[in-house]
Design a protein that fits this description.
357 residues; 2 strands; two-stranded antiparallel ribbon; single chain; binds cytidine-5'-monophosphate; mainly alpha
Length: 357
């Protein structure tokens, strides 16, 4: 029998599809908690630069994606001369050069500029996430961030001309109501770990804006992926490359500003960059890579489930770690969000798959 090309990849004997989904759920919840703690556990004047964290994340994610893209080059870019002597040896200098040239050609293919749009949007989103998580309780942020399902759906209908079933529209309405209920109690409580005055309105506005960029960037990335045969890892490299310039903008801006350290834009790039800041960056990197794996081995409907599972993990951990006060309105709002997410993810005949990344 020929090797099973469509065999489901496994890791430690478990299907990679489910491993990546569960890991994404845990990653989502952990990121929110660690990022929140990393921002609020120190005084505002001693906090690290969010802009530096975003830049570092893109550098690391881009480097890992580059390595993966390089290691897989033969699977998506044909060799120039497959019959040349020693072509099977990776470390043969001429083979290495040949692979680098093919990778360069893939990364800088003529349509690579298309990734500049989601790259800019994701950089804005990743910066806004820091503003939101610094001004809202971790669990409140997690629930409010579910609104990105709504923005993704709206952009999918507008840009990809997808049709949503009445059940899905109803689920989206429930989602908005649920997020609204959760907001009623936000701002009333302040967790034990916080040394910051949190501004719930500012946090909520940042979440709304981040949901907007998430939806638009996701749908745009999906359009690019589906309209071209390029490898996902090459697309990830392009995304990171185009992210570098916008990620540098707030850093340059902060250096030219005379007001000095104000929390978001510290004068020294890695000032106050402690262990929690590094943990935030590493978990963000993991999230970006997992997102790519989930798209490849699972699907976007399952990705929605993973996100809703992460809400529950965040709730429980927030109560245990930050002494988060769970009010009745919070439980009600969160339940409505979870039910809406479940409703939205029910398969229907028109098989509407919304997320591309
Ligand atoms: O929640 P959402 O799906 O919008 O999150 C997207 C996150 O994943 C962003 O932080 C973005 O930078 C990252 N991402 C990535 N690689 C992709 C798509 C998204 O690193 N291909």
């Amino acid at each position: 029998l020929p090797p099973a090309e469509n065999a489901v990849p496994t890791i430690f004997g478990l299907p990679l599809k489910y491993v990546s989904l569960v890991t994404l759920a845990v990653q989502n919840a952990t990121l929110t908690l660690i990022m929140h703690y990393s921002r609020v556990s120190s005084a505002p004047s001693q906090t690290y630069s969010a802009a530096a964290a975003v830049l570092l994340t893109e550098l690391l994610k881009g480097s890992i994606s580059l390595l993966v893209a390089f290691s897989r080059i033969d699977s998506y870019s044909p060799q120039y001369n497959p019959n040349s002597p020693g072509s099977n040896s990776l470390w043969n200098p001429s083979n290495l050069l040949n692979r680098f040239r093919r990778l360069g050609k893939e990364v800088f293919r003529p349509d690579c500029w298309k990734l500049s749009i989601p790259a800019i949007l994701y950089v804005i989103q990743n910066n806004l996430q820091f503003v939101a998580v610094s001004n809202l309780e971790a669990a409140t942020f997690q629930v409010s961030y579910q609104m990105k399902i709504l923005t993704t759906a709206v952009f999918s209908v507008m840009l990809l001309r997808r049709k949503l079933s009445p059940t899905k529209w109803l689920a989206l309405l429930f989602l908005a109501i649920g997020v609204g209920i959760v907001q009623i109690q936000s701002g009333a409580s302040k967790s034990d770990a916080s040394q910051h005055e949190m501004n719930a309105f500012k946090g909520f506005m940042a979440v709304v804006a981040a949901c907007f960029t998430s939806g638009l960037a996701g749908v745009y990335f999906e359009m690019v992926l589906k309209n071209s045969p390029a490898d996902l890892w090459v697309r990830n490299v392009q995304l990171s490359l185009f992210s570098l310039l916008p990620a540098l903008v707030p850093i340059v801006f902060s250096h030219s500003s005379s007001s000095g350290s104000t929390g978001w834009f510290n004068t020294s790039l890695f000032e106050n960059f402690g262990v929690w800041a590094w943990a935030t960056v590493l978990i963000q990197v993991l999230g970006g890579l997992l997102t790519a794996l989930v798209i490849k081995y699972a699907d976007n409907i399952l990705k929605g489930f993973a996100t809703s599972l992460s809400i529950v993990i965040s709730f429980l951990a927030s109560v245990a770690l930050f002494n988060f006060q769970m009010t009745l309105t919070f439980i009600l709002g969160s339940t409505v969000v979870l039910v809406a997410t479940w409703m939205y993810n029910q398969p229907d005949n028109s098989s509407v798959e919304v997320r591309g990344c």
